[in-house]
Amino acid sequence: MIYSMTGYAVASAESPRGALALELRTVNSRYLDLQFRVAEELRAAEPLLREMITGRITRGKVDCRLYYGDSAPQAKKQLNPQVMEQLRELAAQAEKAFPGGARLSVADVLRWPGVLAEPAADEDRTRAALESLCRGALEELNAARGREGAKLAAILLGKVAEMRKQLSEVAPLVPEAVAAHRTRLAERLREVLDTGVEERIRTEIALFAAKSDVDEEITRLATHLDEVERVLAKGGAAGKRLDFLAQELNREANTLASKAAGLKIADCALELKLLIEQIREQVQNIE
User: Structure pTM?
Assistant: First the structure.
């Protein structure tokens, strides 16, 4: 399957600390570019996310956002016995130093740093929830990228078919152009030369036919089109290969245009270059 580099997916899952939400956005890029926006409490999950994403995506800019959902319940806080014991000892020492001082109130105790603590989360369950969440989001993302990639592949195959049609129209035009040039050249040479006209005509026609021979270019263009179809049928990460083939197609089309022996051939070469440019534009979105 051919994959587009453009896609979006969002997924949620329950964890010991509440509902997790993962959002993935991808756009086209020359290389794989990962950007993470992770809640501070979940910062330790970034290596896991990076490993899972790179295992499924090879090219494109990926924006990954991981956070607790709005509906996530607040974790119940508990009193920290160790901190309260330390606070009690400090308060006793303070009372000895300042006998007339006011004692700590309950509100003062609760506001003391570290007195209220959240229960330790189950790391194994949290990791399992994250793996399941990321796996589901990647499945949804790749499904969307696959649907977009199928559309791109259909467009490219349509352009290939149009190029084959143009090539089939070019081949018969070359002998016609050579024959027309022969007639024009013979008329001009007979006007200015008295002897050796026929030999000169044959020489000039041979040179012109050699310069305007485009069989090699047509063959190479057809071969490159065969390779485009093969790459699309094979699927996978084909963007860079298709981009290279588009460059080679453009090179041969330029040579064909430079050898154009007539207006019709030049028009066909121009149409080929337009189709190739359209192919290159679409290829930029393929992984």
Answer: 0.70
